[in-house]
Amino acid sequence: MAKPTDDHEISRRELLEGAGATLAAVATVSALEAQPAAAQSVTTNDTVPRTTIRVAVNGMRHRIEVEDRWTLAELLRDRLGLTGTKLGCERGECGACTVLLDGTPVYSCSHLAVWADGRSVQTVEGLARDGRLDPLQQTFAEHDAPQCGFCTSGQLMSARALLNANPHPTADDVRAAMAGNLCRCSNYNRYVEAILAAAASPRSRG
Amino acid sequence: MKSFTNANPRDVAHAVALSAQAHGANRSVSFAGGGSDLLALVKDRIVAPDVIVNLKTVKGLDQVAAAPGGLTVGALVTLDALDRHPVVRRDHAALAEAAGSVATPQIRNVGTIGGNICQRPWCWYYRNGFPCLKNGGNTCFSANGENQFHAIFGGGPSYIVHPSDTAPALVALDATFRVVGPAGERMVPAAEFFILPRDDAKRENVLAPDEILASVHVPAARRGTRSTYHKILDREAWTHAVVSAAIVLELEGGVCRLARIVLGGVAPVPWRVPEAERVLVGQRITPELAAQAGEAAVSGARPLAKNGYKVPLTRNLVRRTLVELAARA
Questions:
Q1: Which residues of chain B have pLDDT under 50?
Q2: CB under 8 Å to B170, separation ≥6 — which residues?
Q3: Nearest beta carbon to residue A106 from set B1, B3, B110
Q4: N or C: which end of chain A has fewer CB within 10 A?
Q5: pLDDT at A34
Q6: A163-198 burial, b for 16+ CB within 10 Å, e for fewer?
Q7: Which residues are CB-neighbours of A74 under 8 A, at least 6 positions away?
Q8: pLDDT higher than 80, residue A203
Q9: What residue spans define the domains of chain B?
Q10: pLDDT for position A48
Q11: How far apart are CA A60 and CA B249, in angstroms?
């Protein structure tokens, strides 16, 4: 795994972004991969086409060169070191890789990194703030929702999107919103309980 | 994944031009709407594009425009947006219900109406790389193989079923598709967009290599019209229809003036059943009449060795959906 070599500096100015209430920090653009983007040609056979994109991840802005074939999950995990996002099936069939793209849950395994140009991504690493867990992380632990834990970060991101859009969901709302996240330990009822408990907690909008 | 160039077109004409340029340089091209289906196919080496033309950068293609004549839905409108759109829900419920029944929230958030209509079949032989008709071979392995999810209507030489939920709804709603290619654009009725394997087993629709589906026009609902989409799954979520039915009824004083019944999950194209529609026209829809229509709907079924269960499932789905729709206020 290549570690990012850039230094990020986050200013104090914070703003709420989009419906997802993703906290975005205005950061200096990283100097990573400073060479200009290769001109996009559809007629020549470059060995590995690359494109420089700008993407905000957990409020940190990156200007970064990606291979056109990289998925968003590959960018997050292999390039930015954010391995909290898990790859299960790699086919949009399990939900472990769920992240929020402009506040909306998507499968990061099924979305190219280059398509995230100009957009904002939130991963499980962006949930805790100032050393305090997101209420969902707290209630997930309290209700023993994670068993093996592999699906948990994806479950958290779908649940966060749900509570951002609907702070007081019914159990049926939760089941509908979580239908795209499998748990092979089959602990679905605990996930529903934990999400309802987080919605009822005073800090529900994490 | 195989390496490829991602190309971001400005508009529909540019997308078509990029595709034509790439083909001119002997490079293979795929169009991406939401991209979920395409990337899975690339990872599994079922398709191997040198260039992906990313339609997400085409401006204005993600809009629903309502006019007196009907709705124009850009091909990039997501399934989630369609499911939530107030005019679609009110006037064309079958389309909203079909869009809302697709896969999962994550897929509906990126999946587009154009991509849902144009997605490739989900036959396990095709998706697992068997050298079948869809993969350029000369055999349909499902014909005498594991065919429990395959066609009971319109099969041969390939027995795939068309996987789209929105396609049967759009045929039932009498939609028209705007197709744009290097020679300009053409309007294709939804019912004529899909093609049977006996006409061309390698593809599922009339799109030529450099053509894209740019938008969908749904004519304004006539007075007394109601519609719905019912889908039977082998689990609660995240899969394609085993059988589905999109039904549009025009009722006047309780009497059926027009019926369009289009089945999904049972044929290589959205499968209209005029035999069942004829049972209804001029009649009041009672449970007995709905049962007759269900019988008529499966009168032409030709099940394979392992999918005979789809026949009663289809018959009962048509009956139940008609009863439910006729009772709607």
A1: none
A2: B95, B117, B190, B216, B218, B270
A3: B110
A4: N
A5: 37
A6: bbeeeebeeebbbbbbbbbbbeeebbebbbbbbbbb
A7: A113
A8: no
A9: 5-57, 64-119+160-219, 225-327
A10: 92
A11: 53
Of B210, B166, B220, B214, the C-alpha closest to B186 is B214
- B39 touching A (Cβ < 8 Å): yes
Across the interface, of A40, A91, A104, the residue whose CB is closest to B109 is A104
CATH level 3 topology of B64-119+160-219: 3.30.465
Contacts of A11 (CB under 8 A, 6+ apart): A25, A26, A27
pLDDT at A46: 66
Q: Among residues 103-132 of chain B, which lie with CB inside 8 Å of chain A?
A: 103-107, 109-110
Task: Please state which CATH number belongs to domain B5-57.
Answer: 3.30.43.10
Categorize the per-residue pLDDT at A14 as very low, low, confident or very high, splitting at 50, 70 and 90.
Answer: very low
Task: Of B165, B168, B169, give the one whose Cα is nearest residue B95.
Answer: B169
Chain B residues lying within 8 Å of A109, measured CB to CB: 39
Tokens for B3? Answer: 């390496």
Q: Round the CA-based radius of gyration of chain A to a whole number and report it.
A: 18
Q: Which of A153, A157, A146 is nearest to A186 (CA)?
A: A146
Cβ-defined contact of B105 to A105 (cutoff 8 Å):
yes
Identify the CATH number of the domain in which residue A56 sits.
Answer: 3.10.20.30
Nearest Cα residue in chain A from B239: A93
Say what the pLDDT of residue A205 is. Answer: 54
Q: Which domain holds residue A73?
A: 10-35+50-88+104-125
Give A98→chain B minimum CA distance, Å.
8
Tens of pLDDT, residues A33-59: 333 444 467 877 668 999 999 999 999
What value does the CA radius of gyration of chain B take, rounded to a whole number of Å? 19
Let me know: does A37 contact A28? Beta carbons within 8 Å. no
Give me chain A's average pLDDT, please.
84
